[in-house]
Amino acid sequence: MGLYDAYLSMRHRRSPADPPAHVAVVITERDLLEQGAYDTLEAFLDWAFEFGAERVTVSVSVLDEAVVPTLERELREIETPKPVAVRGPGDTERADAPIQVSIGLGGKHEFAEVVRSLAEEAESGRLDPDDIDETDVEDRLVFPAEPDLVIKTGAERLSDFMIWQSVYSELYFTDVNWRDFRKRDYLRAVLDFQDRQRRFGR
């Protein structure tokens, strides 16, 4: 088992392509109920920075908003290699930390709040509608950074995740459930990214 991980690490180091600078992972509240789920998350963060990431976003999709305060508390207490910013459904403060955690803050809701803010500023005369561009949107997002690689465990579908920011992201789906996610699974995702030719919508 260790030899295979070492082999993947060697392939990563020898790849001429850059690793993803910003990695995002999409998990669910149910994933975090599994035994060892937070240990996996701590390890995931270590792997990401070990293998070249400069920023990591963790998106936790939530069905029951009643669990958000508990998740926020627990996720603020995990051991991390870099500072963390945790944001929930009602938060509007920009997240700029190297590790960003979104709990139940859906992409549709985030984008709708941006549109509402722009509409209010235009109506009040503080902003000319003809001057609105992509920068105005990005300046108002809670999570402004665009992921290079988005990893989704357990199923080949994305939840309501960073709709604006991930438009040019490379997507990687694995049928490995979060509770079973290992270093080799992360390295496979990174190597897959390094083997791709990014087109950024072209």
Automatic annotation (TrEMBL):
Pfam families: Prenyltransf. InterPro entries: UPP_synth-like (IPR001441), UPP_synth-like_sf (IPR036424). PANTHER family: DEHYDRODOLICHYL DIPHOSPHATE SYNTHASE FAMILY MEMBER (PTHR10291), UNDECAPRENYL DIPHOSPHATE SYNTHASE (PTHR10291:SF28). GO terms for biological process: polyprenol biosynthetic process. SUPFAM superfamilies: Undecaprenyl diphosphate synthase (SSF64005). The lineage of its organism: Archaea, Methanobacteriati, Methanobacteriota, Stenosarchaea group, Halobacteria. One of its GO terms (molecular function) is ditrans,polycis-polyprenyl diphosphate synthase [(2E,6E)-farnesyl diphosphate specific] activity. It comes from Halogranum salarium B-1. Gene3D superfamilies: Decaprenyl diphosphate synthase-like (3.40.1180.10). It comes from the Archaea. This is Undecaprenyl diphosphate synthase. Keywords: Transferase.
